[in-house]
């Protein structure tokens, strides 16, 4: 029995990183890397995966990412998944096992291994839903449109309004001439 693991939201300027682990109980067709699927298809597959798998989804907030770092957040999330899903093998998409024993890794596993594709979809859809749900609380940023990624429009909003509590202050923007000293964070 294989547990596939993948993350969504490693690189955005705002919002959480979401890591999912999945063991499929039944064959599901049309699984693929979440980035290759339409939003509609991802959402359809999300429901099918939830019904036909053992899964665990972990959210790491912008604050946790700023305090602990991306790698530490990924590692603790994988360990949480491994504690909640008992499997014979664990496979993470990417090029590292983060020093975790019994964790295999494979580049592009999200496009080639069905369990990792399913994890990719659960992580992406969960993160996108979260960003849409919080968007009304932070209307200046249009989170529902760019989901916190560093689009030109999002960077312009940060220039105009500063950062909110959903932004990762440890992620510096060259276009704002930011360095690691003196970054101001909006508090609303």
Helix content: 25-40%
**Overall residue-averaged pLDDT value:** 92
Low-confidence stretches: 180-188
Backbone structural class = alpha/beta
Any idea how many domains? Answer: 2
What's the CATH class of the largest domain, please?
Alpha Beta
CATH superfamily of the largest domain: Ribonuclease H-like superfamily/Ribonuclease H
Q: How many runs of DSSP E, i.e. beta strands?
A: 5
Cα-based radius of gyration, to the nearest Å: 17 Å
Which geometry do the CA atoms define? globular
Subcellular location: Cytoplasm
EC number: 3.1.26.4
Catalytic activity: Endonucleolytic cleavage to 5'-phosphomonoester
Family: Belongs to the RNase HII family.
Describe this structure in words.
The structure is a single chain. The chain is of the alpha/beta class. The chain has two domains: 2-135, Nucleotidyltransferase, domain 5 (2-Layer Sandwich); 136-176, no CATH class. Helix content is 39%, strand content 17%. The protein has helices at residues 39-51, 62-68, 70-84, 109-112, 114-134, 143-146, 152-161, and strands at 2-8, 17-24, 53-60, 89-93, 103-106. The protein has a five-stranded mixed beta sheet with strand order 3-2-1-4-5, with helices on both faces. A hairpin with an 8-residue loop joins strand 1 (2-8) and strand 2.
